Amino acid sequence: MEADLDLDGTDFEIIELLIADGRRTLADIGKVVSLSAPAVRRRLDRLIELGVIRGFTAILDHEKLGRPIEAFTELRFAGKTKVADIAGIAAELPEVDEVYTTAGDPDALAHLRVRDVADLTRVIDLLRRSGRITGTKTLIVLGTETKAARAR
Question: 69-140 sits in which CATH class?
Answer without folding.
Answer: alpha beta
